[in-house]
Amino acid sequence: MSNNSNLQLTVEGREKGKGGVVQKVIIYIVSISLSILSILPFWLMFVNATRSTPQIQSTAISFLPSTHLFDNIKILSSKNMFKPLKGFLNSFICAGGSTILAVYFSSLTAYAQVVYEWKLRNAFFSFIMAIMMLPGQLTLIGFLQMCYKLHLTDNLLMLIIPAIAAPSMVFFMKQYLHPALPIEIVHSARIDGAREFYIFNKIVLPIMKPAIATQAIFSFVGSWNNLFTPMVLINSTKKYTMPMMVSLLRADIYKTEYGSIYAGLTLTILPLIIVYIFLSKYIVAGVALGSVKG
């Protein structure tokens, strides 16, 4: 009887082992497929940046690079309106400034929601949630009217300062900070004589690094790709952001150089890829931290 039971256990173990291998194979296949689908649009954009306009018009999709990359870059440099260095600088100023303000003040608001106990705390959070439900297009007209009345049009500051109010980021930060921050640490720091901003800057912000990195990526990408608001507010060509300059490449009434447009788009997304590479490790750390706590 013991030999039969041992044989049965061995067979069951082999079946479980085979099932585990099948699951791993399925997971690998799904992961590789999703990775390919994610990388494919960027690869096609890079390939089209190396192709000429007749090649793009004759064959819409090609997976192999061509030899016209430098020709497309020359076409870009010959455009009077396209000044990549100036566009990169303006975009970095807007995206970097708005990201810093949004992340810091959203974290500060979330800290106040989690740590302090005051009568209108729940009402204030409900008000933030209500604002988050409003679409941005609904408040855009009033924002533009305010800018015109204050004579703040054609000013990059109006693309940076409004980022202080980021309701969705406040919600995310609060949800992350609530289980991640032990209140005892704050109380201990207060007993030791630490002030509130010192506690927030030196203790709370390091705890929030994964959440800050995640939201910084979203905020930076959103601000970098923002086209409509700058097109309405900015009039001076010297203040054009990179997406604005790329959009003007299609305004040529004589001929549209699709290869140069794809080259401009490739230049536009390079900073986004660099930012993601530097901040992605914090996102992974945040996911690992959440799994350990769970």
Question: Could you please describe the fold and organization of this structure?
Answer:
The chain has 13 helices and no strands. The protein has 294 residues and is mainly alpha-helical. It has two domains: 2-69; 76-293, MetI-like (MetI-like fold). Helix 4 (84-115) crosses helix 12 (242-248) and helix 5 packs across helix 7. The longest helix is centred in the N-terminal third of the chain and has 48 residues, at 2-49. It starts with a helix and ends with a helix. Residues 290-294 have low confidence and may be disordered.
Task: Give a brief outline of the structure.
Helices cover 76% and strands 0% of the residues. The protein has 294 residues and is mostly helical. The two termini are 43 Å apart.
Helix content: over 70%
The gyration radius over C-alpha positions equals: 26 Å
The CATH architecture classification of the largest domain is Orthogonal Bundle
What is the CATH top level name of the largest domain?
A: Mainly Alpha
Number of domains: 2
Task: Give the strand content.
Answer: under 5%
